[in-house]
Amino acid sequence: MGIQFIDTEAGRLVVVPEEEYRRLVALSADAEAIQAIEEFRGKLASGDEELVPADIAKRLIAGENAVRVWRQHRGLTVAELAKAAGLSQAFVSQIETGKREGSISAMKALAETLSVTLDDLV
Fold it and tell me: Both 23 and 75 in a single domain?
């Protein structure tokens, strides 16, 4: 295989052919990807992550109001969301239509009720 060992003051160095080096780099990248997938699967199984349908992601990317998109995805009416979050229905409606910005506390309450992070809504 053509492997060489070189002893230096800094430690032992290993010299391998370039083809072998590239194979090892690819294996390392594969291992990192596999680890990331396993971590995600664990979070998904524990409920710390969820799969988001493509239509929801597309709506969010297109700039639709995140509160409205997540509310509809969760199958809630404006009244149900407002009540569960301890906010008025009119206020939640104004947030969804962009007529008012929600305070940090209001947005946190909405995020908690919708089971998303605050970052998902802002």
Answer: no
